[in-house]
Structures are given as C-alpha cells and as structure tokens.
Write a structure and sequence with these properties.
Length: about 120
C-alpha cells in the first residue's frame, strides 16, 4: 500500500511561483504514471500535468508554458514547478499515481493512489 504526501502549497500573488512536491512511500518505479490534479471551489477536479516513467508528459492547455512536471525516481519525488501563477490556478492540488503508463485519454481515467492535497491560493 503506497502513500503519497504533497507539500509546497501556500499563498502567492499573481505572477509568482510555487513548487509542489509529492513524496511516494515505496518505490516510485512501480508507478508508470504520476500526475497532479487540482480542484477549484465549486468545480470538478481536473488533470493539470502528468509524467510517465521515462519522461513523456502531458499538460492541461491552461498551464502549458507555465507549469513543469518532473519526477526523480531515486528520491521518490514528483515535482510541479508553477510559474506565472494566475488567480484561476487557485485550488487544492492532488498528487495521483497509476501503476500503468498513460497515453491519450487514459490520462483522464482512474488512478490507484491519491494524496491528501495541498492548498494553492493565488491572489490578484
């Protein structure tokens, strides 16, 4: 049974940056796909970014060019670097893991493990 623990959320002004980290208990190698999702108040949870073992990534159109996802298997960590933050980036950010690699629409499918979430608030 794996556990995912997120950190790095907080309050930041528009235009600022935050780095979110997700530490995985157990081997990160066992997860083909690692992702970050977010849920804004009153909205459904949405995929923000994902990364497969070996590096292929996917991003929501709203964050392309501003966010970067990376994974360090040795440190069992998945990181989301968020730059040029906007008020609409506000929400609870969740780390999620799947044993299988994701391709295409599968990124929007089921995941095997979820973290508890970390709050990101961007003020205007």
């Amino acid at each position: 049974q794996a556990q995912l623990v997120e950190s790095g959320g907080g309050l930041v002004q528009a235009g600022g940056s935050l780095t979110l980290s997700c530490v995985v208990s157990g081997s990160l190698f066992s997860f083909g796909a690692m992702t970050w999702h977010r849920q804004a108040p009153g909205k459904q949870r949405e995929l923000v970014a994902g990364i497969n073992t070996g590096g292929p990534t996917t991003y929501a159109d709203s964050v392309k060019g501003r966010f970067t996802i990376s994974r360090n298997n040795a440190k069992k960590t998945v990181t989301l670097q968020m730059n040029s933050l906007k008020p609409e980036d506000t929400g609870v950010y969740y780390c999620a893991a799947a044993h299988n690699r994701k391709v295409g629409s599968a990124w929007y499918g089921n995941y095997d493990y979820w973290g508890q979430g970390t709050q990101v608030t961007v003020s205007s």
